[in-house]
Amino acid sequence: MRKLFLLALTVCMLLGTAVAQAAQITDVKWGVDKSNVLRLVVDITDTAGYSVELAGSKLKLTVNAKAAGQVPKVKKIKSTLADELRVVDGGSFTEVHLPLNRQIASSDYRAFVLKKDPQTGRPFRVVLDITADKTTGVVNNGAVSSSKATTKPSTGTTGKSAATVSSGRTNGGTAQVSNKPVVGSRPVKSSANEGKAPTGTSEAKVVKAGSSSTSEPKVVKAGSSSTSEPKVVKVGSSSTSESKANVKTDKNSTATKEELPLAIKAKTKFRTGGGIKGKIITLDPGHGGSDPGAIGASGLKEKQITLEISMRVKELLEKEGAKVYMTRTTDKDVYGPNASDRAELQARVNVAEKYNSDLFVSLHINSSVNKSVGGFSSYYYPKTANQSHLANAIQDKIDNNFAEDNLGVRQANLNVVKRCSMPATLLEMCFISNPKEEKLMKSRWFQKKTARLIVEGVENYFD
Predict the structure, then answer these.
(1) Which DSSP string do the residues of 82-145 spell out, in sequence order?
(2) What are the backbone dihedrals phi and psi of residue 191, each rounded to the nearest 5 degrees, phi first?
(3) Are 404 and 339 in contact (CB under 8 A)?
(4) In the chain, what are the domain boundaries?
(5) What CA dihedral angle connects 342, 343, 349 and 351, to 10 degrees?
(6) CATH class in words for 192-463
(7) Catalytic residue (choose from 308, 344, 404, 428)
(8) Burial readout 45-77 (b: 16 or more C-beta within 10 A, e: otherwise)
(9) How confident is the model over 420-463, as pLDDT tens digits?
């Protein structure tokens, strides 16, 4: 009897420990930046999935974590868009309701995540920016003092808000569909290791220079798809207008000042026809190194699957006569551990540009707070008709040969597909949050079949 009692006590203690270690929301904050962008920030003790839903004039952010007792249920907001936010307990998850003063479009908001930063003490954060009333004005005691309002959808911002959050990377290029239940891609701090030389593969050589001529916005992660991430600042300058950052180049070196990588411009025009033989293709296995990407219930990491499938795609493409480069071939960051959003993503684009690629394909795994959500989806940025042609060629092959849901092809303001000069697409290969699909993606059968269908899609694109 005593043994049974001790066994029961041990089980209770283990369960208690598991509950205590579960992600918990510690605060929900808001801020309005100088451009009148309303930002909501949810502080969480550990990584957690999220989704964003828009219904008429109601915007709802759902986070897969329980709110602590000290989090207020209602907070007043000084914004042209809303007067208050409400925190609603959903049991194992929490909903942040934002009753809006008017209806907005799905392109008027974007969500992303920021990684826990031990140096500054900032926790893991889910950030939601509402850009519907973006202006060129300035903030004065919480109120915007500008009459130049615009309803043009914002493509991103790094403006510092009252919530005091720094910019971060959302999915290595993977976007969060702002109005779909998805989890963010890579969240990182914005000022660490920005001068470190790229690691993980010799192909990812970064050219250091002053500032770049581009300042396009990045996005949030697919499935992470009509998405967008924090705004990309001009290469060579930081979000705080400083052009350089103090970083360590490796564990044994001292801190040195280095500039961000300058975007490499392609020397030759990309080719779009004539078969796959002789074509130059760059593959980008999402995440890697210090960034695990999305994590499944079993502990499976997105970075593991994307690399495994990418290596199989490389092998098959080379058998067809293509020349293939990889942004990474091992479990390492492309630019450097804990690099800024813009540095890491630009380093991936630079690989494709350096080798004058005809094609760029970024591979990712999706995630959602809804464990029943699953399927494949493809994303592109509409630079030319070639972009959608590529995304559809791969998506169609997968749809015709897989029993998993077809979530379709979508436009997305994803950094890695937008900033490439050649046709590019980002593929989300099922949901690691879906128990059935997580088990599936562990299998060699799934990995081989997915790789083969991607290659067949690429072949169709060039035919």
Answers:
(1) BSEEEEEE-SSSEEEEEEBSS---GGGEEEEEE--BTTTTB-EEEEEEE-TT-BS--EETTEE-
(2) -130, 5
(3) no
(4) 24-165, 192-463
(5) 180
(6) alpha beta
(7) 428
(8) bebbbbbbebeeeebbbbbbbbbeeebeeeeeb
(9) 999 999 999 999 999 999 999 999 999 999 999 999 999 999 99
Q: Using only C-alpha atoms, what is the Rg of the chain?
A: 22
CATH number among 2.60.40.3500, 3.40.50.140, 3.40.50.2300, 1.20.120.160, domain 24-165:
2.60.40.3500
pTM: 0.52
| Contacts with 189 (C-beta within 8 Å, 6 or more apart), sequence order | 114, 115, 117, 119, 120, 166, 168, 338, 340
Phi–psi pair at 356, nearest 5 degrees: 50, 50
End-to-end CA distance of the chain: 74
Is residue 174 helix, strand or coil? coil
Considering only 234-238, 395-399, 411-415, 417-421, which range has the smallest mean pLDDT?
234-238
Residue 251 is classified by DSSP as T
Task: Tell me: pLDDT of 214 over 90.
Answer: no
Calpha distance 199→115 (Å, rounded): 21
Task: Reply yes or no on whether 344 is catalytic.
Answer: no
Q: What is the pLDDT of residue 120?
A: 73
